[in-house]
């Protein structure tokens, strides 16, 4: 079997561009993968074009060897753009090889360890009673792992003011009320989307009774394990870190010193299934459970389900953002995973179990999109 084409598509679908890669072969088998570098899809599409030059004619079954060649061939190894391009190709290779063997992708990863994947749900309501009501409603629907956000989402078209320190007492107040209303059984966390500094995070946690939060996701930016080390010495809330990491090397300092307690790997950014399986193994060393990031299309969700099925150290997968409301997704994706009873069933159809309507998506326009911008009151830039 030989690779005969590697195509990349970027198209606007509701609230972000979706970046998909299709790998075709002379045997007629093909596979689909997705990249997660939202907002910089053109860079990923360019990288896929480079990789195509040497992937043509190669045997797609040599997934591990092709991964090494993609990662190391340009001397300037790795990085966010290349890892995201490799991720999409690697997932597509798994899809096509599994289809050629008439087996589900999880079988290529060592088989499944569970039949369904537990999910966590997110409320994006702003801080206030509406957030608490929404979390209570989710609990009544059966969700027992819940995540809040700061509730300030901003818009890519206009600058939004965000004062990290001013957010602390407000967020702490409403998370405390949420915990009181939800009771002790529910797992409750917050994604602070790396908007705080180390001392701001300490103040935030200290303003809540102990036991309010089961995890805090990315309170600060994640380039510096030293900053996390200093935070760990001052607070004891478990950390969920890793959605921005692109490799096992990014994860390593956070795993080796047990600086993260949940591994938020994004398989569409961190080099695909090949690299993510290694990251999960690395996390297993220190009994860290995976909590994969899953904010993209049904392709990412399907691949994440196979990953979550095959690893032992799983906490929960992120609830897909498109569920229910995105009718267009039924046109673009055939047999997309559907959430049932707060979980996703592991699909045993060959490959990823999801197909793409290529005739339709090839005509969908790409839209330049920028992530929202947040500024402090003094006009200086702060993290979204
Ligand atoms: O946890 C999450 O899903 C978020 O952090 C993401 O939606 C994130 O904001 C986006 O992927 C950035 O493009």
From TrEMBL:
The keyword RNA-binding does not apply. Coiled coil: none annotated. It holds the Pfam family MR_MLE_C. Residues 128-238 form the Mandelate racemase/muconate lactonizing enzyme C-terminal domain. GO terms for molecular function: mannonate dehydratase activity. GO terms for biological process: amino acid catabolic process. It comes from the Bacteria. InterPro entries: DgoD-like, Enolase-like_C_sf, Enolase-like_N, Enolase_C-like, Mandel_Rmase/mucon_lact_enz_CS, Mandelate_racemase_C, Mandelate_racemase_N_dom. The keyword Lyase applies. Keywords: Lyase. SMART domains: MR_MLE (SM00922). This is D-mannonate dehydratase. It comes from Paraglaciecola mesophila.
